[in-house]
Specification:
The chain is mainly beta and 122 residues long. It has no helices and eight strands. Helix content is 0%, strand content 52%. Strands 1, 2, 3, 4, 5, 6, 7 and 8 form an eight-stranded antiparallel β-sheet that branches.
Length: 122
């Protein structure tokens, strides 16, 4: 099944600098939830854009055929870690169609906040 698009943008990005609650479950984080419903592995290039410095990346991500991946931006380290408390945007380009949903868990307070939205597809 071919569902999705090859180019996805997430304009809003910000990893909170601290968390309230046990790690890793309640660690403040952002994630790209990627669905590859197709029959071929997805090879995805992720670039991070900032307001005051050159982009970071590309980060290389693979999602097996007919699988999903919840990619925590906090866990990215190659070619560099994404700085916390720094606004950013991201662009994901895949060689096969995928679906991408954005999620943020903000646990800086005891009353946690979760936001999720579908990314912009081209």
């Amino acid at each position: 099944m071919q569902v999705g698009k090859k180019i996805w943008a997430i304009a809003e990005g910000y990893i909170p600098g601290w968390s309230h609650g046990p790690a890793p479950v309640l660690t403040s984080h952002e994630a790209a939830c990627i669905l590859n419903a197709g029959d071929k592995e997805a090879n995805i290039s992720l670039t991070i854009y900032f307001a005051d410095r050159p982009p970071a990346g590309p980060y290389r991500i693979q999602v097996a055929a007919e699988r999903t991946l919840h990619l925590r931006f906090n866990d990215l380290s190659d070619p560099e870690k994404i700085p916390v408390e720094t606004p950013y945007s991201s662009l994901l380009i895949s060689d096969v169609p995928v679906v991408i949903q954005f999620t943020r868990l903000d646990s800086r307070q005891e009353a946690n906040a979760l936001v999720t939205t579908i990314a912009y597809a081209e």
